[in-house]
Amino acid sequence: MLALIVWLKLNAFLALFITSVVVGLAGRLDMATTLSSIQTGVGSTLGSIAIVISFGAILGKLLESSGAAYQITGSLIKRFGTKNLSNILMVTGFLVGIPMIYNASFLVLIPLLYSFSIAAKQPILPLGISMCSSLSVAHGLLPPHPGVTSVAAIYKANLNLTLLYGLILALPAILFSGYFFSRFFKRSTATIPKHLYNQESVVQENLPSLTASITVALLPVVLMLISTITKPLLAAGSLLAQAIELISNPAVALLLAVLSGYYFLGIKQGKSMKDLGGLTTMGVTSVGMILMIIAGGGAFKQILIDTGLSKQMGDYTQQFSLSPILLAWVTAALLRFALGSATVASITAAGIMLPLLNTSKANPQLIALATASGSLMFSHVNDIGFWMFKEYFNLNLKQTFLSWTVMESIVAIVGLAGCLVLNNF
Questions:
Q1: Which of the chain's termini has less CB crowding within 10 Å, N or C?
Q2: Close Cβ partners of 145 (under 8 Å, ≥ 6 residues apart)
Q3: Is residue 296 part of a domain?
Q4: What is the pLDDT of residues 328-362, one digit of tens each?
Q5: What's the number of CA atoms in the CB half-sphere (13 Å) around residue 327?
Q6: Burial classification of residue 361, based on how many CB atoms lie within 10 Å of its CB (0-12 exposed, 13-18 middle, 19 or more buried)
Q7: How many helices and strands (H and E) does the chain possess?
Q8: Domain that holds residue 277
Q9: 10 belongs to a structural domain
Q10: How do residues 30-54 score in pLDDT, each as one tens digit?
Q11: Into how many domains does the chain fold?
Q12: Is residue 3 part of a domain?
């Protein structure tokens, strides 16, 4: 798989599929059984998360097209002033980053960042680190983002608890990677690329209200956490408990958020149902390849199980005294270094780590978050995020390594430390 992706530059989905076939045949499965195993892996993996990821993408597209991100940032600046711009961008990045995948949210917020940097006469790089740290944490550690969501599905972890624990880890991760780390770049001379900035691109009219913008962005998080919080307080099987469990289901919570976005960010802003249908199509299309990569990861996972290699690896790793959380993190970190894609690294690591999880008493939610955290480590020249950060902040390679790569690694290390601490409770 590494050879196909790194040397031959093959698409990750095709590389995962070809590797699955080769491993199946090498593991003494016949071709028919190998293909059947691949189909089972694809179906079992996508069956539990395709709807969640698709609804999340639609919600992100609604927030993007409505100008909700601009409203959140602008309103917070009016209230707290430009002196707190770095903190405001961290908060905005987190709110926008929860429902939107990293690349999309970065491209939505970068014109706002340029505009406010000029208006406040503040250096662009520390502001960018503050914003991107929040986006990275939300994308890496919180459902419904593809990497952590698919890993949780492979480990059969509770998605709502994964979200809760991810939120607990998010605060220290953002503080260390965004708040504290950005201060090392206060004297940065990085400039805004003139060919990428157009002041007119951030001027928007008919914006949704701040209340509507924040409500729609946070609604799926609130709904998914209600069941976890209220479950110990309600009688099991009661009508209220069943109703709360229904709306807390990740797919239902995101559907309700999408419908609220349809109204508050769409219809109330003058969009027709045809317009909203187009945005829905664009949202689902944007995650099409991500879903295929996840499907390839599911196929690879199933092949490892059906050939018996999964059990062999599990038996082998039992020889080590290392924590399963640490092993999951290291595996994902090494794959991230080799592959570049955090999503591919986390899914592949999950397939490798699954047998160890089955033979240990490790918390599946924390293993999922450790895997997701490890997949953020060592971002460098084979990661599209690395090049986006370099170009949009007008940096050279050395500056990008010292800023972006270190920032991502801080998130990964804090995520690991948080998982190890939570595991004690």
A1: C
A2: 56, 101, 138, 139
A3: yes
A4: 999 999 989 888 888 888 988 998 888 777 667 78
A5: 21
A6: exposed
A7: 21, 0
A8: 20-423
A9: no
A10: 999 999 999 998 998 888 688 988 9
A11: 1
A12: no
